């Protein structure tokens, strides 16, 4: 093994996904980069379109270590997944090794499951420095009709990463198992697997991922706004990818039921994205900036998360909490995960959600406790605390 580095050295942040697209994984990645830089930790980012991070880092003071960004050459894009094609892991290893040596990297943190992540973990192991794998979802989900393509997915992942063996996920249909096995195979090679949620950490341990630590994503700096006046309409906000697993249809069906039962003017739902549809009490805002999402959050009483059995720790929840807003969730597991900061619907369907929304509209006092819980949740996950815990985890890896 090589010489063990300390956490005073740089942290290499690695992601196979394009940083131009701000999905949940990229948002969590960006927040962690900003948190490290704000605490004076040198950060090197190795990811497609890494220069998207070349702007003043939130919370960083002048004179702190500069952020270094490196974008590996792209060879195309994998269709459907919209995943940058960077080549095979073995071809990326020289770039990773040179980056680690040039910038005195003392730990590697990967946020993806493909060739670049595989290369980074393999090189870290050879050089004797800690590697940590942040899993953004172990609950990959695809239509069962795609099951015949599962062997192809497995072969492509094996070809790109060079990984030929390891545990397999077996608790769903073939395509889901193939996708989840991709994550598991990378996780089994890292020194520590980081799961932003407790329930995902338990699933990863059961699958054989090795050392798994429940470690929250970093919450953005607090931007608390006063609770809305209890009068007038109940305002809700839905923010997520427009993908089937996010179940926007459940939110819209619930709003139709609410309008039928108490009228269309007592509850309003803002949807960050989408195009106009004739749904009573719903406004579709089309593409919105992060700043605009914050404004919509301040104007809401709560954020709405309608996924079921898919989400790990959706970043919209952390954003809501940082604004002092609780979340209404359809998934009973997320309701437990977020504890006092979440309000769970009695059933995960539109009927259950509509029932809860009508209760909240009638009694706004039901939101007071969850608002306090949201603020407490966000306070515990601020950048300084996040970085301190990450440094502890890195230091715990013995070589």
TrEMBL record:
<dbReference type="InterPro" id="IPR050194">
    <property type="entry name" value="Glycosyltransferase_grp1"/>
</dbReference>
<dbReference type="GO" id="GO:1901137">
    <property type="term" value="P:carbohydrate derivative biosynthetic process"/>
</dbReference>
<dbReference type="GO" id="GO:0016757">
    <property type="term" value="F:glycosyltransferase activity"/>
</dbReference>
<feature type="domain" description="Glycosyltransferase subfamily 4-like N-terminal">
    <location>
        <begin position="23"/>
        <end position="213"/>
    </location>
</feature>
<dbReference type="Pfam" id="PF13439">
    <property type="entry name" value="Glyco_transf_4"/>
</dbReference>
<dbReference type="InterPro" id="IPR028098">
    <property type="entry name" value="Glyco_trans_4-like_N"/>
</dbReference>
<dbReference type="Pfam" id="PF13692">
    <property type="entry name" value="Glyco_trans_1_4"/>
</dbReference>
<keyword id="KW-0328">Glycosyltransferase</keyword>
<protein>
    <recommendedName>
        <fullName>D-inositol 3-phosphate glycosyltransferase</fullName>
    </recommendedName>
</protein>
<keyword id="KW-0808">Transferase</keyword>
